[in-house]
Amino acid sequence: MTSCEASLKRLGVDAIDLYYQHRIDPVVPIEDTVGAMGRLVQQGKVRALGLSEASPRTIRRAHTVHPIAAVQNEFSLLYRAEAAETLRTTREFGIGFVAYSPLGRGLLTGVIEDPNKMAETDARRRHPRFAAENIAANLALVDHVKAIAARKDCTPGQLVLAWLSAQGDDIVPIPGTKRTARLNENIGALSVRLSAADLAEIEQAVPVGAVAGLRYPEAQMKSVYV
Question: Which SS3 state, helix, strand or coil, does residue 155 take?
Answer without folding.
Answer: coil
